[in-house]
């Protein structure tokens, strides 16, 4: 093995998690689970990638009627974590991954303001939004004009206290069921402009009660939710929490303008029971704040003392939204050496890889054996191979 990439293949242990290497398949919505139920094709898709140290599944809707809704490849047929059929489907996925020697966490997801009303498993229910608003309507480049007109701009009302409690309880229930069917821990989607992030970000949280206020006050929902999940699953399994500066509402948005603000955001969430912070960036090699090379995951680790996971453009030349524009990107081996170097320095502990592993189930083996990487093909978003 090329010694420059050797750090990626060192083992990792935390609570009950035991990983053979530091590569993590990043969560990627695929939309191949009709009625919210993953089938044998989904099990085979994940099992083929079991030599990746850790698999984090696509976003999986929690047991709340407004958790999911969407159309097209990024929304339709998303899986959920409730009900006999879906849970049995997930049990088969977990068994297949374990049989192939892998480790797998489900990414629990509530779409919050991003949910497309009139769609999903419960088209009749209203979406729930912390302050009734979708966010600023003039800064997104991510969603269609149709969506902006029919969904985003529709005025809503702030969530009531009991609606807030219901969403929190839905994460706890789904986490418990996930552990009961054999998952190796829990990942929570707190990023990208979905429900948890809606509370964290001032663009979507204007509340003046206990769920809103300054940076620290806006973490109350996330912290309460993590505490509820931890209570359900006990002390042994890991809790991985994804957060991001960017949102689909505004790719340039920042939750925290300074390390001090980031400490205020992550501190209470860390104390609530998170073990690994997954700092979602589009490019892992971008420093987060002036005056330091640390990226978002690096800062999360430094500020909280928890483990951290990076992501963004590993093995590829362009970031997730830039490659959509260019129609694809070439494989880039050089930056795999670079991410390994930063891992070895202790900046972060785990390395998330999204599109490259979605496209190529052999990616981890290729890296280990020094095989040439395949050029990325955007068409791989449309198939489950
Ligand atoms: C098709 C697709 C679906 C995605 N779905 C999710 C998701 O469900 N949850 C999530 O947190 N991130 C999601 N992401 C973001 C990825 O987890 C990852 O952060 C991003 O692709 C950057 O990593 P990459 O440059 O290695 O692809 C998705 C990305 C892609 C390409």
From TrEMBL:
GO terms for molecular function: FMN binding; oxidoreductase activity. Pfam families: Oxidored_FMN. One of its GO terms (cellular component) is cytosol. CDD domains: OYE_like_5_FMN (cd04747). Residues 8-370 form the NADH:flavin oxidoreductase/NADH oxidase N-terminal domain. Signal peptide: none annotated. This is 2,4-dienoyl-CoA reductase-like NADH-dependent reductase (Old Yellow Enzyme family). It comes from Sphingopyxis panaciterrulae.
């Amino acid at each position: 093995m090329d010694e420059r990439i050797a750090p990626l293949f060192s083992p990792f242990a935390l609570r009950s998690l035991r990983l053979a290497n530091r590569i993590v398949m990043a969560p990627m919505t695929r939309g191949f689970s009709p009625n919210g139920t993953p089938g044998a094709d989904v099990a085979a898709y994940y099992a083929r990638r079991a030599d990746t140290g850790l698999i984090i599944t696509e976003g999986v809707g929690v047991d709340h009627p407004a958790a999911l809704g969407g159309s097209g490849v990024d929304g339709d047929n998303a899986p959920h974590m409730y009900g006999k059929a879906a849970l049995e489907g997930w049990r088969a996925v977990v068994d297949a991954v374990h049989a192939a020697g892998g480790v797998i966490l489900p990414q629990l997801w509530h779409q919050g303001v991003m949910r497309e009303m009139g769609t999903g498993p419960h088209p009749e229910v209203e979406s729930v939004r912390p302050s009734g608003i979708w966010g600023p309507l003039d800064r997104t480049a991510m969603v269609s004009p149709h969506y902006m007109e029919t969904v985003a701009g529709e005025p809503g009302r702030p969530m009531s206290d009991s609606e807030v409690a219901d969403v929190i309880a839905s994460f706890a229930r789904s986490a418990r069921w996930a552990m009961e069917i054999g998952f190796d821990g829990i990942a929570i989607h707190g990023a990208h402009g979905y429900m948890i992030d809606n509370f964290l970000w001032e663009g979507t949280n204007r509340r003046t009660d206990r769920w809103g206020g300054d940076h620290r006050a806006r973490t109350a929902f996330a912290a309460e939710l993590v505490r509820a999940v931890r209570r359900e699953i006990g002390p042994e399994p890991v809790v991985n929490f994804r957060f991001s500066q960017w949102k689909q509402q505004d790719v340039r948005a920042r939750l925290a303008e300074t390390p001090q603000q980031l400490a205020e955001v992550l501190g209470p969430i860390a104390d609530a029971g998170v073990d690994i912070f997954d700092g979602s960036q589009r490019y892992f090699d971008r420093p987060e704040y002036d005056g330091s090379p640390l990226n978002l995951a690096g800062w999360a680790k430094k500020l909280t003392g928890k483990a951290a996971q990076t992501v963004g453009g590993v093995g590829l030349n362009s970031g997730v939204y830039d490659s959509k524009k260019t129609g694809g990107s070439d494989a880039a081996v050089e930056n795999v050496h670079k991410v390994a170097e930063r891992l070895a320095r202790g900046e972060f502990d785990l390395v998330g890889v999204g599109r490259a592993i979605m496209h190529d189930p052999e990616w981890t083996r290729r890296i280990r054996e020094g095989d040439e990487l395949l050029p990325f093909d955007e068409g791989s978003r449309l198939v489950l191979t």
